Every structure is written in C-alpha cells, then in structure tokens.
C-alpha cells in the first residue's frame, strides 16, 4: 500500500519508519522540507521525503502526525489535493484557542473525509522507531481500521470504534502526566499524589461519558496503557514539564499537557460539569 505521513517530528518519523517496515511505500512530508525527528537513525529505503504536500495525493492511506498547534493549518493545506483517502489522526491534543479535538477540526476543515480514525496508546517515539514492541488503540470505522492494520502491521493494534473516547484518553493522559510530574514534587506524600491523580482522572472520564464515549475505552491501550507510560516516566515531556513547573524551572518544547488541562476544564464547563480537581491543579501550577 502507498501511505502518506504528514509530520516530520520524532513521532511522525517513527510512524513513517513503522509504515515502511510494514512493507508499504511511504511518502513522508515535512513542513518546509525539514525532517528533524530522530535524525540519527537510518531512514528505510522505501521512504520518500518531500516538501510538496500534493505529492501525497496518490496515497491510499494518510496519517496526520503534526503537533496539535499546527493540525488545522496542515489540514487546510490538504484541501486542494485531498481525494477521499481514509485519514488516521496520530496527534494527541486539543486546539488551544477553540478547545476542539482533532477529529472535530478535521470534520470542519475537510468535510468530504468520511473515514476518520485515531491512533493512540503508550508510545515513545524512539522506541517505536527502533522496533521495540509497542501497542496502540486503533479507533475508527471498518475501512479506517483495515487500512491501519496494513499501514502499521509492525505494531500491536487494539481495534475500537470509539474515536472520541480514544482522543479524550490521549488528551487526558497529557493533562494527567503534567499533574503527576507536578505532584511528584509538590505533595505531602504518595497517598495524596494518588488521591489527586485518581480524582482528576475521574473528572476526565466524566467528560468523556458526557460526550458519548465508551468508558471501556479507558481500560485499553489508549487509556490505562498510555496513562501508565506517560504519567510515571521522566521520558514523558509532560511529566518532566510538571516537575519543572513545581521546581520553578524553565521547560522546553511544546507541552501538550498545558493546553489539555485548560481545554478539558473549558469543555467541562460547556457540558455543565464540575472539574474541581483539574481547576485546582491548574491554579496551583499557575496556568
């Protein structure tokens, strides 16, 4: 299969590697032709890099792997050449200004896309690129999932139909990872950390339920699996940022957990839900 991957950071590069190792011909697009993700690793021969997004028009399956902050801009650039391919969203996050999930943005900007899926799970990019066993939830309709199993056959994929639930899991774990890192420093003990962490997660599940998500999704790889990985490891950018905030130190790069925390609180308000713990943690972190 011919697969297009949009996004050339560490995660986009890792998924391009997986698609190639899965036996597909891969067209990998990087903004302005910049490919700065995992540049120390050798690129598989069946990956073609391009700065011209329209080179992906003949691909049979598309993965969007840009940061949440650039997701809408990327989709807007697809309008002139997109011809109905299934799209797998591999971005975890919410849009800062609107609080919209990526599938909501995609439906708004590219309404002729009828097959939208989400890939989400416990995935550190470098380990994925190196071929270390990795599992993910693959959410979407039958067409999206069928293509995903071909494009990403090197991964262990757990099928789901819960597109919105998979996204809330990804956004929620970003917020929880930030909170967990912060509480690692700013807490009176492990008991309190576990208490606040669990109460915050319950508020996130309440938002998901109100939006029609399947709460069982939170038991899967995109839920408890990703939460365990990201909220317990200093390799996680959000966890490390939470520690830095607690110590009053600078942190680098995009921290999706900050936007996630704000976005979840705002979405909760729109749904008429109370999120006291999320609000308390946001205030304590000065966000």
What does the model show?
- An eight-stranded mixed sheet has the order 3-2-1-4-5-6-7-8, with helices on both faces.
- The chain has two domains: 2-161, Rossmann fold (3-Layer(aba) Sandwich), CATH 3.40.50; 164-284, N-(1-d-carboxylethyl)-l-norvaline Dehydrogenase, domain 2 (Orthogonal Bundle), CATH 1.10.1040.10.
- Strand 5 (87-89), helix 3 and strand 6 (116-120) form a beta-alpha-beta unit.
- It has helices at residues 10-21, 71-78, 102-109, 125-129, 142-151, 163-185, 190-210, 221-230, 237-247, 256-270, 276-284; strands at 2-6, 25-29, 47-50, 61-64, 87-89, 116-120, 135-139, 156-160.
- It contains eleven helices and eight strands.
- By secondary structure, it is an alpha/beta fold.
- The protein is globular.
- Helix 6 packs antiparallel against helix 7.
SSE pattern, N- to C-terminal = EHEEEHEHEHEHEHHHHHH
Number of strands: 8
Give average pLDDT, whole number. Answer: 97
Strand content: 5-15%
Q: Count up the domains.
A: 2
Our measurement of the CA-to-CA distance between the termini, rounded to an integer number of angstroms, reads 44 Å
Q: What CATH architecture label of the largest domain applies?
A: 3-Layer(aba) Sandwich
